[in-house]
Amino acid sequence: MYLSDFLRAITVLGIAVCIFVPGTTIIIIFILTGVTSFITLFQAPALQSSIIHIVGKQHIQKASGMLSIADNIARIAGMSIGGILVAWIGGGAAVCICAATLLLSGILVMAAGHFPSPIEQNRMERPRLCWCRSCW
């Protein structure tokens, strides 16, 4: 997930540079926006699948619901805050702030550390019955 956040930060920063550089064609901004959207396609499933590792199987429904609510609030509030920022400091600076928040997101995900996979959890929970099972 952090790799997608870092890559999105780079592409969004590229969009900001295109906004600041006079004479940049809109096609370059469209391409960078498409690349950013493509990278986001990989981030969303990774986020959803990591929830079970954080909260466990017993709380997955509640956590998924809360994540959906938080995501929808962020989408609505993000558009409003983005519009205010564009009006207040300009489009290029607002896009730079977006890139900075993506960079911060990647750093925070890296700081969260590794979540054990379900296979690793099962190996920790189950006692080994015989020596031959450990190599299978």
**Largest sheet: number of strands, sense, barrel closure:** none
Structural class: mainly alpha
Bin the strand percentage.
Answer: under 5%
Distance between the termini: 30 Å
Q: For the residues shown, what is the average pLDDT? A: 84
Organism: Paenibacillus plantiphilus
Main location: membrane
Transmembrane segments: 12-32, 76-109
Subcellular location: Cell membrane
Tell me what the structure shows.
The chain crosses the membrane at residues 12-32, 76-109. It comes from Paenibacillus plantiphilus. It is found in: Cell membrane. With 136 residues, the chain is an all-alpha fold. It has one domain. It has helices at residues 2-20, 26-55, 60-89, 91-112, 118-125. The mean pLDDT is 84.
Keywords, separated by commas or semicolons:
mainly alpha, 5 helices, elongated, 136 residues, 0% strand
Short description:
By secondary structure, this protein is an all-alpha fold.
Chart the SSEs and their pairings.
Elements: H1 2-20, H2 26-55, H3 60-89, H4 91-112, H5 118-125
